[in-house]
Recover the amino acids of this structure.
């Protein structure tokens, strides 16, 4: 155990003091080490005390799992969390972002930001002198991807050569799954209707990062996307800020519901994942969500363990 702990710490040392704005901000080795550390923390094989460090949360979007998992993760590391709701701080009254970032750097040790534009996140990282974490933007959801592949690793062990099939909108979750999966050697198939594909630049980036011959593909046929896959994944069809498109998206995504028929086309051992919140009967059937293949609530719990590992690495607590 001592050698494994030393190995993980050695790999993750390079992340100390850095930002985590994208799944591509860690190397393949660092990504695997974060999952290993998360597993050690989850099993109680490792305990880390950061000595009363402070995490600031700036959340412009609603949140349950991300907010609570970050707060509990920081508490388990011996730290504290300050909720910096923009509506209750000077941010909501127009204080410049660059002023806020520099002031908070004097009070906090790390910031987790959940917002719309990736550029806003990048601006915080530019002006802050402390690590900044992407807690969700319209472009990526990298902390979610860490928890997703931790869940898949728990089910299958070695991730290299496994296949994850995502059916639904080529959104921020799809982007981070491709990038993180590529670094871990996982084949990632994005099954989506025409017009709802992930950004071509992100697809190209994921392919360039691919380890061990992992294939990154975009497929418009949901049956072909899930065929033989070890993990099936979906997300809501209309994300936050897209509610006005709900009816249009329901029509476009006909046939993309993760139901019993699609599950039957996957590997017989396949697990089912969803980043939540879920709309039963829309992007996922109630039977599949509550069925024996579902690992959705294990996946939700793993947000805590993955983010605890990430915070420890960024704050140099290993």
């Amino acid at each position: 155990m001592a050698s494994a702990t030393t190995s993980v710490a050695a790999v993750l040392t390079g992340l100390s003091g850095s930002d985590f704005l994208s799944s591509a901000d860690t190397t393949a080795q660092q990504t695997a080490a974060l999952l290993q550390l998360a597993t050690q923390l989850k099993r109680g094989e490792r305990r880390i005390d950061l000595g009363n460090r402070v995490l600031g949360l700036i959340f412009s979007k609603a949140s349950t799992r991300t907010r609570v998992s970050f707060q509990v993760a920081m508490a388990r590391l011996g730290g504290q969390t300050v909720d910096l709701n923009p509506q209750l701080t000077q941010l909501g009254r127009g204080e410049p972002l660059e002023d806020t970032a520099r002031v908070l750097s004097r009070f906090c040790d790390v910031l987790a930001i959940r917002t719309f534009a990736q550029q806003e996140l990048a601006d915080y990282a530019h002006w802050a002198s402390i690590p900044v974490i992407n807690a969700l933007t319209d472009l990526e959801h990298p902390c979610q991807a860490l928890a997703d592949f931790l869940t898949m690793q728990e089910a299958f062990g070695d991730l290299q050569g496994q296949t994850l099939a995502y059916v639904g909108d080529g959104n921020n979750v799809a982007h981070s799954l491709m990038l993180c999966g590529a670094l871990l050697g996982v084949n990632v198939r994005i099954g989506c209707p025409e017009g709802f594909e992930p950004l071509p630049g992100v697809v190209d980036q994921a392919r360039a990062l691919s380890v061990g011959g992992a294939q990154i593909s975009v497929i418009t046929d949901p049956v072909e996307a899930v065929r033989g896959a070890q993990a099936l994944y979906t997300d809501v069809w209309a994300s936050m800020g897209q509610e006005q498109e709900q009816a249009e998206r329901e029509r476009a995504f006909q046939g993309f519901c993760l139901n019993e028929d699609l599950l039957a086309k996957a590997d017989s051992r396949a697990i089912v994942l969803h980043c939540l919140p879920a709309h039963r009967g829309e992007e996922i059937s109630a039977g599949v969500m509550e069925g024996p293949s579902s690992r959705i609530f294990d996946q939700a719990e793993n947000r805590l363990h993955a983010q605890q590992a990430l915070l420890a690495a960024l704050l140099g607590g290993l």
About this structure: The chain has a mean pLDDT of 95. The CA atoms of residues 231 and 241 lie 28 Å apart.
